[in-house]
Amino acid sequence: MEFQNCFPVWKKLNAVHREKLLGSLVSRTVKKGTVLHNGDNDCTGLLLIKSGQLRAYILSDEGREITIYRLFDRDMCLFSASCMMRSIQFDITIEAEKDTDLWIIPAEVYQGMMAESAPVANYTNELMATRFSDVMWLIEQIMWKSLDKRVAAFLLEEISIEGTDTLKITHEAVANHLGSHREVITRMLKYFQNEGMVKLSRGTITIADAEKLEELCEG
């Protein structure tokens, strides 16, 4: 897969911008667990995923994580270029959830293109609005949705992403995604198991009754 086929507004760029973009690209392959961006002091550049999966999360003062969004094939991450967005008041960490191939666009190159190209500026503004919508949705979930419904929704999302009912994921990883404590998640999953919704084993959660989980989410 070539960069030209993944960058959403490639066909709207002029020849100068295309040449500048291709000349500045950095291709990178990272292993699962690699931290690509860590806080506002790290201006990595914009990340465009060729294949793989990344997770963007924030870290509380107490050390608790919570996922704000995830990135998949052909998705672009703007928050990894924090030096472009001085108004952002929270630190975001970007981590590879799976082995990932990606391109890095230097922030200064992209920022210059935004100033010169209306299609790039418009696309960036739309993407920024989408990411902030993700954050607002997350805040609504935390404020108004009970933890059991959030855990159920997360498990359903995971089986959709992975394409299997057997999830290779720890209770701690679920807690990190949801901004909770491992002990709390373990109690919740044991309750789900008692209700016949999941089956638990070391490092694995198997969905036994997806319909019950869906009913819990909607109830």
Structure write-up:
With 219 residues, the chain is an alpha+beta fold. It has two domains: 3-142, Jelly Rolls; 145-218, Winged helix-like DNA-binding domain superfamily/Winged helix DNA-binding domain (Arc Repressor Mutant, subunit A, Orthogonal Bundle). Helix content is 44%, strand content 23%. It has eight helices and eleven strands. Strand 10 (198-201) and strand 11 (204-207) form a beta hairpin. The protein is elongated. The mean pLDDT is 92.
Assembly form of the protein: single chain
Helix/sheet category: alpha+beta
Q: What portion of the residues fall into strands of 2 or more residues?
A: 15-25%
As a percent range, the share of helical residues equals 40-55%
CATH fold-type name of the largest domain: Jelly Rolls
Main beta-sheet strand count, sense and barrel state: 4 strands, antiparallel
- How would you name the CATH homologous superfamily of the largest domain? Jelly Rolls
The low-pLDDT segments are: none
Number of domains: 2
> How many DSSP-defined strands?
11
The first-level CATH class name of the largest domain: Mainly Beta
User: Cα-atom Rg, whole angstroms?
Assistant: 19 Å
Strand order of the largest sheet: 1-8-3-6
